[in-house]
Amino acid sequence: MTNKELANLIFPNITKTVDDYEKMYPMRNLKDGAIVTRYAPSPTGFIHIGALLASFTGSTFARQTDGVFYLRIEDTDTKRTIDNGISEIINGLREFSVTFDEGPINENEEIGNYGPYVQSQRREIYQAFAKHLIEEGKAYPCFCSEEEISEIRKNQERNKGRIGYYGRYAKCRDLSNEERAKRIKNNEPFIIRLRSNGDYNRKIICHDEIRGDIAFPENDLDIVINKKDGLPTYHFAHLVDDHLMRTTHVIRADEWISSLPLHYQLFQMFGFDIPKYAHISPLAKIDEETGGVRKLSKRKDPECAMSYYHKLGIPYEAVRLYLATITSSGFEEWYLHNPDGKIEDYKFEFKKMSKSAGLFDLEKLNNISKNYISRLSASDLYDRVSMYLKQYDHDFYEIFVKDKEYSISILNIERCQKKPRKDIGAYSDVKKEMWYMYDELFTNLNYSFDKISDKEEIRNILNTYISKYYNESDDKDTWFNRIKDICAPCGCTPNVKEYKKNPDDFKGHVGDVSTIIRVALTGRTNTPDLFSITALLGEERVKERFNNALEYYKENR
């Protein structure tokens, strides 16, 4: 029996050839240097920060070269696939502004001329390519049971050999075609294996765009390319899809770098051009228990899930900016000098990507987010915070949106200036940083200020200010001068340096006086610009809050 006859026996309904598919999926008409790459997740229902990093990197390189970035769903592992998994991936990434030129747009629709983009819908294509390998004598049916494979592994472990199906352990490799046909006709279950032509004792040089040339032993494993259910394994599907979709660059996690010899071999066996590979280092963190560095864990680390950032209200732009600092060693410095620049304005290069695990730093992300939020207009921030609160804090949402202009005015304090306020790193911080501006929340306060502990002295300062010096119509300079003016009558000095020189001569300085006023108005010792807060509260509320503070200090002497 010839190889072609065997192939027809295994795949009697596959009539299209590799050449037919070559014509169906022609080379893309793109300019020189354009990158065609993809993000190829499994629809398992969990979008994590590593996935965002991979998709961000791929889309960035494609966009800056006027190339193509497509989404491919690798769902051949049917046991892990969940309902609506595709939509969850698309929607999850879209929320972080990761979009695709081609691929599925929901569970039932897709765009692009190189699909289907869902692997389970490409079964006949994979079988045509597997059939071709069988015809060429480069693949064969394997009838080994799970028990036989397990026994092979045990023998290899006993002999301290490499684990895998190869050489003398490949029991079905050299069966005759007649024997194969007989067993197929007897309905024995089988899979399709690659007939590797590699020699493990020979070295192959593989090139990685990030790491450079790497030497590996040639692949000699007769890996599974088609499973019993007729669907391909990752390795084989990756070959077929990346070739037919005309992928120029495969950007993926570095856990796949050891597969390079196999993937090189697969492309060479078909005579296909090998795409360029770039393996991204994983994200890591300092383990709280051991103090050592480990990979981010889906199980252990809440920051691994994209939902974590949604719930905190960290802007997606800030997350992208942070990922850009991980992607390129030069981005952080560039952004420092171009704070209004867009990620798209920076030229990313593979050679500037890290070869080691990027240390995930929440504090750094928070600082980037604070800087980003500080540059938003108050009205833009209001809209974003409103949407966040509506989903995650409905009670405060009702308070926040009751008077839109008032809330925008609060957000605008110390915003439009050379050094804007940077106390808000996430939308969830707004309540923590603004609650005192809303009467509904300004209750049951503990007016704590330790610098001047004498309650009568505090009452004296508050009484003096509110009865003799407070004037709603004052501008900022006049307002501050009035605070300095009350220092002397209250035993304080308007000169901080003088106080530091002779602290025993005074009860406090102008900073202490303003802090007492601040605590009375806000319940906090640290806030944005006190004059702006005072002006927004208005005379009636200022006096009411002073009276409440005076009453508190009277009752708690």
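Above is the first protein from milestone M3; the second protein from the same milestone is given next.
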Amino acid sequence: MKGKYLVSLFLAAALAAGTLTGCGGNSSAGDPAAEGPAQGTDTVVVAMDPNSEPASGFDPAFGWGAGEHVHEPLIQSTLTVTNTDLTIGYDLATGYTVSEDGLTWTVTIRDDVSFTDGEPLTAEDVAFTYNTVKSSSSVNDFTMLDYAEAADETTVVFHMTRPFSIWPYTMAIVGIVPEHAYDPATYGSNPIGSGRYTLVQWDRGQQVILEANPDYYGEAPKMRRVVILFMEEDAAFLAAQAGQVDVAYTSATYSDQTIGGYTLAAYDSVDNRGFNLPAISSGTDEEGRLVGNDFTADVLVRRAINLGVDRQEMIDHVLNGHGSPAYSVCDNLPWYNPASEVSYDPEGAAALLDEAGWLLSDDGYRYRDGVRAELDLLYSTGDSVRQALCADFASQMEELGIACTLEGVGWDTAYDRALSQPLIWGWGAHTPMELYNLYHTIGDTGSAQYSPYANDAVDRYMDQALASTDLEASYELWQLAQWDGTTGVTQEGDIPWVWLVNVDHLYWVRDGLQIAEQKIHPHGHGWSIVNNVDKWEWK
């Protein structure tokens, strides 16, 4: 019946009444948590953050599979996939070629794939999907695509507006929809696809139920039914305690707790947190917004700040040990340049501030020409981890003699205010485009998008990387944009951002459930965990 797989009425009542064991309690052998899978040996129940629920449904044209919470769409097939090492593999595609000028991609696809309504999937459907996404998507940037066309039933040709070497990463997240059965008004709620799973039920604000596609062309999923519950973090914890879910997302706040019958699993991520450091002097732009910061405009100051961050201390005290130091927006990805790494060096930081003329006074703060060294730090309201990291960072800067103020802001004003003030951000994606979006100048502004910064050499390397016709060869160019021995965005270069930590993605996992090997997770603590749910199994 409808709602069969919702959290039970007992659990709902207990949550409302606060009668379940609190955070400090442990489940015993007689508790529901120790009784085995929530629904059966071919079913898994996963609790996710409510923000993981797609507001517009399961339509790739409106962001399903894309955005900052990048993941495999599951319901639809994709042309390519990213392997666990983030190299490119094939799903629908059987191969692709790129023209010498990088403006034409020719992709061949399988001829044995059908949608769940029985109609064959052809290159016409692929072309239709991409043209629709280009015209409709407000989540992904498709300005590099001119149009797609089907050359024949198994060949699709992408005509580009500009070279875009990392197109295979885009092809890994765009789910293919059927041209004959696509209605933008209804598809998101009733998607027809050809992927590993079909959507059988969606109760908005509550749950999604997926079932294995019996006609899937690949290896049959081991998990036949996947139930996703959308729950706040405290409710997800209580649901695990009550044995109502098999996997429950959590955070470092709960990591010192235990639940009988469950293990706390930590997955590596490139889900980083860091501050932008406006790299130009203060002023206003054509829209009258404050732009630039006189203190952080000095590269010696920015370098000092980067050296003065004790990242391991943040991991230990804010993340309860569940994280890794962050030195870039792409740590441990194939295009990462290890030259980004620095060691905590407060003495070196102090020397750089001295060199910049910011001298320590008797009151413990630094001054130059009578002006006190100050940072006005912003964090997004409602994000306790960012607030705690911001406070820890401020404390470390105070030790260097830099006065700090902290302010919580909403995202309605944060983007504009970050043009002149450091804001703690979260980034990290399975594509080098993240580097481009943060560091490349845009349009006629002559500045990067999210924080004032410009470097012609960095721009050239990234432009050359995108113009390459060899994806793997382009990685070196992305690395050179970070540091080429002379210039770049690292410590010895311009350092327009200071990166703090990569946040481990934490989950309570029921004993006996074997979760398949995970890719490094991108920004967003949501659907990434179930990218390969078809390979999970009960042992």
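Note on the second protein: The two ends are 29 Å apart (CA to CA).
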